[in-house]
Each structure stands twice: as C-alpha cells, then as structure tokens.
Amino acid sequence: MVSEERRESIALEDKPVLEEIRISVRNLVEFVLRHGDIDNRHKASPDNAMQEGGRIHRMIQRRMGAGYQAEVSLKYTQENEKYLLVVEGRADGILREEGQVTIDEIKGTYRELARMKGPMPLHIAQAKCYGYMYGVQNKIPLLRIRMTYCNMPSEEIRHFYQEYTFAELEEWFQELIRSYVRWADYTWEWSRLRESSIQGLSFPFPYREGQKELAANVYRTIYHGRKLFLEAPTGVGKTISTIYPAVQAMGKGMGKKLFYLTAKTITRTVAEDTLALLRKKGLHFKSVILTAKEKICFMEETECNPEYCPYARGHYDRINEAVFDLLTARESFSREVVEEYAQKHQVCPFEMCLDMSLFSDAVIGDYNYLFDPHACLRRFFSENTGGEYLFLIDEAHNLLERGREMYSAALWKEQFMELRRELKRTILSETSKRRKKSEIRGQIDLKMTDFMTQESVFAREEDSVDQTSIKSISGKIPSLPVTQSPVGSRNEPSGNSTPPPNVRGSLPVPRSKLRRTWQRPQKRRQRKRKRPQALSGGTKRAFSL
To answer: Fewer CB atoms inside 10 A, N or C side of the chain?
Structure first.
C-alpha cells in the first residue's frame, strides 16, 4: 500500500516544471509606476554617483545597532498555470527593536534635504514591496517603512516614517502585480513561440570550407561558458556563422538575450539583415537596433524637457502603451519602425528604443552600450543586475582605440586659463578688501615711525623732481631747506643726513606715502651699486655715489 508521502512525491514528479519569469523589485516599480515628463533640466548626477551611493549605504549600515540586519535578500513567487512569476530584491536594512519591525530603504541624493517634503513615490513603493515580502515570510501584522535620505557631499541624513498593516501592503502589492501580469503573459507566450521556431531552424546556406567548423566552435564556446577569439578574412561568412550557433544555444536555454556590438553603422545593418534572413527560414526572433539620440531625435536640438519638446511632455504616461503596441505588431525594431510608432504615440523615440531592448531577444548597437562606463545600459549591466547574456563583438580590434577614448579624460587648456583668470580676479578682490581694512585713520603705527621723531610729520608730494622744500604740518616748526640735487636726479636726502624732526599729528597718514618718503631712495641706491658688476669682459668697477 502506497503511503501518503509517497503519493505526494509521485504527484510532484508528474507535475511539469514551470518556467520562471524573473524581475527585480526596482525594475518592477520603475516600469509599472512611472509617469510624468522627461526633463533634463535637473542637475545630472556625477559619473561616480553609483560608487558614492554604495559608500553611503555602507556608512549608514555600519552606524546601526546590533538589531539592524543589512542587505536582506527577499523573494516573492506567484504561481499560475503557465509560469512562475518571481519578484526578488534586497532590502537595505531591517531593524527589529521592542517588538517592532522597520524596513529601511537608503537613498543617496544631491538634493537639499531641508527642502524635501516627503519621500519620492518610486522610492517608497520599492520599500513597500520589501515590507510585503518580509511580512509574508515572517507573518508580521504591522510594519514600519523608513526612508533614509543622505546628502552625499555633506553626509547629512533625514528620515521619513510610514506605518502599514500587512493587509494594506498586500492589497497594494497585488494590484502592482496585476498591472504587470499582461507583460509577463506575453513574455511567456513569446518565449514558447521562439523556442519552437529555433528547433526546426537550419543553416540558410550550404556550408563553405571551414564555415561549419567555425559555427561548431562558437556553439561549444557558449556551452562551456568560455571566450573565443576569431580572425578570418572578409567574405568567409563570419556574421551568419556566429549568429546562427548563438541562436541555437538560446533555444537550448544557454542564454536569454544576445548582444551584437560593433563600431560601425554598416555592420549593424549586416547583423539585422542576417536575422531577417533567418526569419525568412521560419525563425521568430525580436531584435532592436539602438540608435544615438542625436540621430533619432525628432527635434533640432536634443533638449529633453517638456517646455521645448512635445514628445518629452507626458512621455512616461504614454510609453507603456506605445511599447506594448509595437511589441505585439513587429519582430524587427529598426530605426524607421521605432520612429513610426513614436510619432504615433507622441513619445521620445530614443527612450522608446531603450525600452524595446527589455523585450528584445537581440540588441544590436555600438560598443559603448556595453564597455563605456558613462553610456552603458545600466538596466542590464549596473550593480546588482545580471542575466544570461551572450555577446558577439564584431571587429574587436577597434576596441583598443575606442577603449582609450572611453577610459581617458580630456583636458582643455582654455578651461585652465579661465580658471587662472578667475583665481587672479578673486585674489585681487580679496587683497583690495584687506587693504581697505588696514588703512590707518588718526593713528600711527610704531613701524611707520622708524625715521620720524615725536615732534613733526613731513610728507612729500608724489616724489616730484622739482620739490625744493618740505612743508611743515605744524606751524610751530619752520620749513627746512633741502639740498638741490643735480639735474636729472631725484631729490634725495644725503646719506649722512638725519631725518627732520616730526611733530605729533592728528591727520591720517597712509602707510604707502611714508614708505615712499624714506625707503624708496635707499632701494634705488642699492640697485645702482649692483649694475656695474654686470659689465662685459669680466671687468669689475667700483662707483662711489
């Protein structure tokens, strides 16, 4: 007699294994709940924003107490008759204290935290997903969501708190899943159609010499998860000999998406033509050609803001319907096709092209969509993301020069010269301010009275050549004669003469006038003594002044 456990195991063995359709919490929230305009007028994040964000996460997590658990992996699986929908992600932190559970979501930002009125809708939605998933696993009736914002330059932190019952989170999350179900259903149906078409696909031409061996090597490389470097002359048929085995490998479950990357536009067209040839043989395979924004934009300037571009205004309100319309109508998403549907739905063609890559089996584009750290497709190649991808790199010898451009910085002399001028203006401005503050009004510093007595104050008028007397400030002291210097020389007191007596004055005496009156002649005499030593011929002469 068969036991109950044995019956259950037999039932599980007979039950077919369902395919899993996976999506991350962040991608689910950003795809379903996005709305509004495209607006590039907001300040762009620096190139190292992702690295800074990771640093901020680690810094905040280290500051928490013993009850704080960082980077908690969570997963939710919903089963239906066709497939398993798996939503997964990692909560930044979960805090358990005094019987209360807090889901912590950390976000680094460059915004001023004092001006924030509340958390961003997409951020709080992501935290609510983690809260529901954690509540399902641990049967928690009440959860608190905490949004932690940190200003990355100043490391200032601000928290926002919201409490939800498990029933509220469940109702909200299930509505989110229902909004995504039609996309998951279409993905599963298309996957079945694609795999069945690959099974009956044959090579479109009779094999040339060496072509079959080449295709076999490509297939074995994908099977073993290795890398293959191929060099062959033009006309051998490298494109079809690499794309065909890659498609066959995807039919056997060895990859989910194919990236064909090249440096030239003409070779992208060759790759699309090859896929079109396989479609004529019965293949069902969706592909998209990524086109640069400057080339595909409908406007004269690539100003992506709702005031300048009508396609940017309300783009996210219409883009999902536009994508689904194109997805169910065509298999090849070329530039012309994307422009046609973008015009039809009044959306940005460049952003629509990027969104079509999410549902394409093959993505054809430039090297920089994979290798450039500033322009790579972050929806596929950013941190905490990954997939079963196959890469075909055409004309890889061009990567050397392109890599230098991607990972090098350009320094422009004009920018440094402008910075130098700006620094000079700043220094002169600060110096002028200090001079105004240091002016003497009604008092004399001790350093300024080295050549003065306590009886009188004398001043010269701009070191005039024809000056013959020094005017007395006080009427008690008579004017003193000054020895007339030879023609062509400046009026200077003799070396052994003593400065005239001074009187205590109440008028302001600038430091610069006193310094010119008595110190400048001494400096000039020193320079005159040094000049004869530089005569030609090595002759040294001594002059007495």
So the answer is: N
Q: Give the CA distances from residue 490 to residues 149, 382, 466, 497, in Å, rounded to whole numbers and listed in that order.
A: 72, 77, 8, 16
Angstrom CA distances, 406 to 302, 350, 383, 396, 410, stand at 22, 21, 19, 15, 10
Beta strands in 120-216 (DSSP E): 142-151, 156-165
Measured CA to CA, the distance from residue 482 to residue 491 in angstroms comes to 8
Pull the structure tokens for residue 327: 């997805």
Q: Where in the chain are the domains?
A: 15-181, 187-406, 446-538
pLDDT higher than 90, residue 288: yes
Residue with tokens 């309100």: 317
Full-model pTM: 0.69
Q: For the segment 380-402, what is each residue's pLDDT rounded down to a tens digit?
A: 887 656 678 999 999 888 888 88
CATH class of the 15-181 domain in this structure: alpha beta
Under 8 Å between Cβ of 52 and 152: yes
Question: How many CB atoms within 10 Å of residue 256?
Answer: 13
Which residues in 334-461 belong to E strands, given as ranges?
A: 362-366, 389-393
pLDDT of residue 61 exceeding 90: no
d(CA 465, CA 216): 100
Mean pLDDT across 291-297: 90
More confident residue, 543 or 205: 205
Nearest residue to 122 via CA among 36, 235, 190, 192: 36
